[in-house]
Design a protein that fits this description.
- The protein has 88 residues and is an all-alpha fold.
- The chain is extended and about 45 Å long.
- The chain has one domain (26-88).
- Helix content is 52%, strand content 0%.
- It has helices spanning 27-41, 44-52, 62-83.
- The relative contact order is 0.15.
Length: 88
């Protein structure tokens, strides 16, 4: 059983819709996709729609997104170790 004391420093994991590209995607392309998606998410019409459905958009630059993903993988790896769960 996992106890709260097992997760000292627990950080709430972000949730939402994520956009991934293939491994090895050149950073220039990742940055271009990010810029296009961010611009689309910031249009007044879409912002209005998001607010009406209680969503918000927070597109992270590729480097921040990669760092966040690494932190989440580390956290979940530790949680699985503590719970003594193994992939089948």
């Amino acid at each position: 059983m996992m106890r709260s004391s097992d997760c000292i420093g627990y950080e709430k994991q972000p949730s939402g819709v994520r956009l991934y590209g293939p491994a090895g995607l050149p950073m220039a392309i990742a940055r271009r996709i990010h810029a296009e998606v961010a611009a689309s998410l910031n249009t007044p019409d879409l912002q209005k729609r998001l607010r009406e459905t209680y969503f918000s958009a927070n597109p992270l630059p590729p480097e921040e997104f990669a760092a966040q993903t690494r932190r989440e993988v580390q956290f979940m790896t530790r949680a699985l170790e503590i719970a003594k769960l193994r992939p089948e």
